[in-house]
Amino acid sequence: VDGIDPFNDSLKRAGAGGTETLYTGHVGELATVGNQLFFSGQDALAGQELFISDGTASGTRLLKDIDSAGSSSPYRLTSAGNQLFFVVDRPFPQLWTSDGTEAGTRRLLSPSGPFMSILDVTAVGNSVYFSAVHPQYGHELFRSDPSNHFAFLVADIGPATSGSFPDDLVAVGD
Q1: Helix (H/G/I), strand (E/B), else coil: 56
Q2: Residue 20's closest CA among 31, 36, 5?
Q3: Which terminus of the chain is more exposed, N or C, with fewer CB under 10 A?
């Protein structure tokens, strides 16, 4: 995929044979995992949802209608290993992962309940670390575990719900 045309709301690919329009509609965030392009796109029936493309018009489609009652508006699209991680705010902030299939696109569960907000999301190997506000821990650092579809608290650094306010996460080294 070679570009987004913000004036015509479309995703295009340019090649030797000319320009091919892969998707027409609002295009939000983009991320690649292997040879797949994931993006937040607008569908007339589903609303703003997660789309996937293999770089061809016929291979560009809505991946999953996460919020059948409205738009899930996925954001913070982050590639880690062979997975995409992203955030939706319906009905509360949730971290999701996708392997590029509808069945493999699912929410990561937090054993201690829902998040109030999910902030920075940074890839480290096959996982992501993310800063989130949680009603029990406050603003702390969490980690995904894609092997069992859970998100865990890394450490409760700030006492009770005060939190430690981790911000501007950066992966360094391997």
Answers
A1: coil
A2: 5
A3: C
